[in-house]
Amino acid sequence: MRLLLQQRPQGHEAPRFVQLMLQPDLLGGWTLVRESGQIGGRTTLRREQFLDQASALAALEQARDQQLKRGFQLVFAQGTDLPK
Question: WGR domain: which residues (predicted)?
Fold first, then answer.
């Protein structure tokens, strides 16, 4: 599962992005990977581990909603039927 959100540039700043990925791990758990930063610049990568898919999916939805409230727009979604 993968979501890509972008924020329009303000002034002379480069546009910002947030990428949220949900991946199964080798031990039966799930990992939420958050990558964010300016397009063409440095990025930050954070990983959160979850024991089950339901809690990982809830965290992904919460992170998505948080970014939408901050002015980001969903530009790409893969492997998900999440409402926009």
Answer: 1-73
**pTM for this prediction:** 0.87
* Alpha helix positions (H), the chain: 53-69
Domain that holds residue 31: 2-78
Contacts of 37 (CB under 8 A, 6+ apart): 16, 17, 43, 44
11 touches 76 (CB < 8 A): no
61, two tokens: 């939805």
Q: How far apart are CA 76 and CA 74, in angstroms?
A: 6
Residue 83 belongs to a domain: no
CATH number of residue 14's parent domain:
2.20.140
